[in-house]
Amino acid sequence: MQINFFKYQGTGNDFVMIDNRSNTFPKNNTKLIEFLCDRRFGIGGDGLILLENHEKYDFTMVYYNSDGSTSTMCGNGGRCLVAFAKQLGVIENEAHFEASDGYHYAKFENKLIALQMIDVDVVKHFDTHEFIYTGSPHHVQLVEDLEHFDVKTNGAKLRYSDLYDASGCNINFVEQMDADTFSVRTYERGVEDETLSCGTGATGVAIAMHSTFKTDAKRVNINVLGGKLTISFDIENNMYKNVFLTGPAEMVFGGSIEV
């Protein structure tokens, strides 16, 4: 079997992209998906994304973790899929699509892609951290000297701790840089390691920092290892609405692989 693919990345969060509008990809083959995401034996990626038809919107987003498991929403993956859809000619400068957490709108802003995320009405506050759901579950915790922090060890401990059930949680470690800028490093479940960027995590950090009065900005800059993201939002009746995750999404290469 020969599979045609493209590789995309958004601030270093990289994905194997496959056009599955013909519905020929074996979606239940977990081992195949894991192989395609393997950086040594396969193509390599933090996840695999299928672009599929939708009866109402421009397309459907189907996302898999690099271990082959199905996953919740991926913000950077969503932005990359919008770029892929434009490359395929499915859209022009705007997109309407459905993902695991529902409907999304996206638009091109110069060379960046702004993706509308779900509304957020609850941020759970704890003594050591915040918990927020932005299409995926996120633990947000302030730390000092983030540059030298052991993200993989500490992230794994929290991801598998009694704080969360068997499905786990993504773990974000945060350091405030100035009034509206935060640096973030994220341990992602499914990847089971630190990634260079996490879009839903960056979104969660921005909202969590606003909700805990670390910033009063409604446009928050997030530094990740793979670059910079911007999260903007409005607040209506204690709900975060019109939440947009904005950043780059670029094609790296394309090809075919025999499996």
UniProtKB/TrEMBL annotation:
The gene is dapF. Substrate binds at residues 13, 65, 75-76, 170, 188-189, 199-200. One of its GO terms (molecular function) is diaminopimelate epimerase activity. This is Diaminopimelate epimerase. It comes from Flavobacterium difficile. Keywords: Amino-acid biosynthesis, Cytoplasm, Isomerase, Lysine biosynthesis. InterPro entries: DAP_epimerase_AS (IPR018510), DAP_epimerase_DapF (IPR001653). It comes from the Bacteria. It is found in: Cytoplasm.
